[in-house]
Task: structure prediction
Amino acid sequence: MKTLLCSLLIAGSVSAQSVADKAKTTTVKEYELNNEKTITIKTTSTERRNLILDPKDAGELNQSLINSPIYVEKSIMIDYDNDDRFDREVQLTYQKRMEGDLNYVATPKGIYISSSDSTPLFITKPGAYELSSKNIDNIKILVKDINTTK
Result:
């Protein structure tokens, strides 16, 4: 019994060192263009940040956290023709610091993607793309045509 208790305590202390903060959100928005065409956009965003304790506070009860990068995965599904299916999916993966974020605007002809310090990238065709930014690292963009039920 003592062995089981000791092994549980050791396993608990090892797993506590690799703690992550994770948040997942989903939003659905509809935009009407020129009073005739409606675009539906469903965005699912997952943000994960490893919680790292400041080594200067080792052994203290209330330890400070070190700012660590935030890993972001976004799935943007777009319906261009107002039916019961999404027509295009844009997958964004990037690593951001505390300041700066990646923005996008869907239009009937494609999608604009930019950050606060980069030139906007306008994507009209499926494929793999990259975007450079000072505040956001490793921006990967994958665009594909899909036929998925809403």
Notes: Strands lie at 19-33, 37-53, 65-66, 70-79, 85-96, 102-107, 110-115, 121-123, 127-131, 136-149. The two ends are 53 Å apart (CA to CA). The chain has one helix and ten strands. Confidence is low (pLDDT under 50) at residues 1-16.
